[in-house]
């Protein structure tokens, strides 16, 4: 098996760490990026951090990589759009030129079933226009106008509603961006499959604020129709991501794969007439 060089963002913990371990155990070289404990230290909430990622990976890799796992995400509401959309797109676009020398270049972005949440007005369009300043301003305008975090939920603390709305909007915009980019000359025309994996409820540090509460954990479990799928394990997500960036994935591009135990299917299936 040919060794491949893969960049994983958000590699220091959770699904990023599990993906990095899986790839290394398979004999591949992983260049991890995160805020700490990584080969390339980069803060993807800022333009400078995105540039640092591209420059750092170029230096460490010698100018050629085979795949990108744009996994970094989460974070507080204050920087949710900057990290989960603009940071992810910045990582994909910034690292794309380094894929040019690969015989089987691949890229995958990590999204979430939070993308199913109704997005705030105008926010998705501003993200897709790559208007970072405008998108952030619109998010805070919507927050002040009580257009965010207005729905109560038994599953999450009220204080987390705004963060989830912004996170969901950012992930929805990321999915749309990837679907639009996948068939373009820069991606599809260069032979680079670009896909998205939207994850459900996984046992990771990022989900601890809900899953560590027995009542919330049980309530979330009732939303997952596939028996035995809840909560997902980081290694299971890593397996899906590893396949998406493998040479075996030579046909699939521009797709959003919901690895969520059937939550998206149940939420969006056509109702009986």
Walk me through what this model shows.
This protein is α/β, with parallel strands linked by helices and 273 residues long. The chain has one domain: NAD(P)-binding Rossmann-like Domain (Rossmann fold, 3-Layer(aba) Sandwich), CATH 3.40.50.720. The chain contains ten helices and seven strands.
Spatially, the strands of the biggest sheet line up as: 3-2-1-4-5-6-7
Q: In angstroms, what is the radius of gyration?
A: 18 Å
Strand content: 5-15%
CATH architecture: 3-Layer(aba) Sandwich
Intertermini distance: 52 Å
Give the structure's gist in a few sentences:
With 273 residues, the protein is α/β, with parallel strands linked by helices. Helices cover 41% and strands 12% of the residues. The chain has one domain: 3-Layer(aba) Sandwich (Rossmann fold), CATH 3.40.50.720.
Give short descriptive properties of this protein:
single chain, 273 residues, alpha/beta, Rossmann fold, seven-stranded parallel sheet, globular
Write the layout of secondary structure elements.
Elements lengths: L4 E5 L4 H12 L3 E6 L5 E2 L5 H15 L5 E4 L9 H16 L10 E7 L10 H6 L3 H13 L16 H21 L12 E6 L8 H4 L2 H8 L12 H11 L11 E4 L3 H6 L5
Parallel strand pairs: 1-2, 1-4, 2-3, 4-5, 5-6, 6-7
Helix pairs in contact: 1-9, 2-3, 3-6
